[in-house]
Amino acid sequence: MGNGMIIIIDELNRHKYASILEDMYKLRARVFQDRLGWEVKVTDGKEIDEFDDLQPTHVVSIDDDGDVVGCMRLLQTTGPHMLADVFYSILEGEPPLRSAQVWEATRFCVDTAKLSGGKTRNSISYVTSEVMIGAFEYAQKAGVLDAVAVIDPVMNRVLKRSGNAPYDYLGNAKPMGKVTAMAALMDCSDERIESVRAFSGIRHDVFATDEDIHARRSARMNRQKAPASKPIGDLHDYFAQQMRDANDAEEVDAVKRLMQAVEEQLSDGGYQPERRHS
Amino acid sequence: MKLIDLSSVQDVDQHADTFLDELCQLLGFDYASYAAANPISGDVRGYANYPEEWKLHYTKRGFHHVDPTLYTSAKSIAPVDWGRFEHDGKFNKVFRDAHDFGISDRGLTVPIRGPYGDCGLLSVTRNCTLSEWDKLKKDVVGDLQISAVHIHDNVMQTGVLTKALSTPALSSREKEILQWVAVGKSQQDIGDILSISHRTVEVHLRSGREKLGALSTPQAVGRAIGLNLIMPG
């Protein structure tokens, strides 16, 4: 099983990833409303705006626990996008770039509450690097040469320190909630990808397979069904490991059957799935 | 790329087929087509260099109502390989017949989203092995992006209204860089003069070219002078 944590979700495959998108919108609400204080619209704990209705592509990072820990939204600059229609104050009256070979990256964030410092697999720096590698490789495949990313100064520092410094900025940083927003330019080149890989030590294919994602998300859901206080709690780590080690859908199903059997044995009232509430 | 510059012709309608022919020859495709949905009327307008009998059959059978290269590709920001389409009833309807007319289901559609909710779709196809196809795609996808935005913008600007709305909005940086190109400076020189990286020069130059509907930098300079955006060099 690969180590990659990244999935590319677009309008063509989003029906397969509905619950992941929900979690992604929740992560965005926690980051952009709660932490950064941007004036974003949050409904039911989810931050969704009109640009999400324009069928953008989302680059999403799913960690080994099955949690969404990072994301970025991509739009073409030939059509409606945020720098043209929302963040234009950054450009100080100048028209935005418009090119089929430049994409705009917005809502770029990682789960700083869950992730740690340092450079390990569950660090801010690692997840940021993997999201960026995933986005650059996806852009390259599309014939896209540069990205303009709307970011805050903290993200800007993280990028600079991870072999991924923007080569320039458009306009000037402008206040946005508790922090400022800036428009950074990054080339989607082999050199940049190599630089980020060298810094982060990420040598594997960053894209997760559908089986990986399925295993991580199933383990997560089962964990939510059976919190630590339940009889299965002690076995939770064991099953999570089994899920991670599963090689295909069949093995995943086998793990799930075993979990259910154990759960039924251990609980008095038989197996009763709990409703997810989050 | 040496393609006919659609922004320099009087009538895009008359030259779109030539553009598609040249594109196929230059990049190595069997056939190419371009289609755009009018966001207001919902009409599909298009050009293709497919065999006449296939075009007739396609129109007669009303395939433009179900063709996934149009309806599915328009939902993506990235070029869509036809291999991604679900092989559902709509797909089979179009591609089984296409096969009978000698048209491969090995293809790619580049969607271009425009400012008015318009979306243009440049499709190319080639009958070849998967490995040849993957290599070809990697080599030419950038050129396909440039071609797609060029034909889309020029087709969209043939409407009287859109023409009036679409005086190119160049930024000061884009104009400044085009001005230095007009007096004969290289990208490297311009970077030094303006104290910016050559990559910054390049990204603004590319954006300026596309806004002016031009395929090459000299064309862009000519057009910018014509529109009084910069001074002759």
Task: Provide structural commentary.
- The complex is a heterodimer of chains A (278) and B (233).
- Chain A is α+β, with helices and mostly antiparallel strands and 278 residues long.
- Helices cover 37% and strands 20% of the residues of chain A.
- Chain A has two domains: 6-200, 3-Layer(aba) Sandwich (Aminopeptidase); 210-266, no CATH class.
- Chain A has a seven-stranded mixed beta sheet with strand order 1-4-5-6-7-9-8, with helices on both faces. A two-stranded antiparallel ribbon of chain A has the order 2-3.
- Chain B folds into two domains: 6-162, Beta-Lactamase (2-Layer Sandwich), CATH 3.30.450; 168-226, Orthogonal Bundle (Arc Repressor Mutant, subunit A), CATH 1.10.10.
- Helices cover 50% and strands 12% of the residues of chain B.
- Chain B is elongated.
- The interface between A and B is large, with 37 and 39 residues.
List keywords for this structure.
heterodimer; A: 278 residues; alpha+beta; Aminopeptidase; seven-stranded mixed β-sheet; two-stranded antiparallel sheet; 8 helices; 9 strands; 37% helix; globular; disordered C terminus; B: 233 residues; Beta-Lactamase; Arc Repressor Mutant, subunit A; 2 domains; five-stranded antiparallel β-sheet; 10 helices; 5 strands; 50% helix
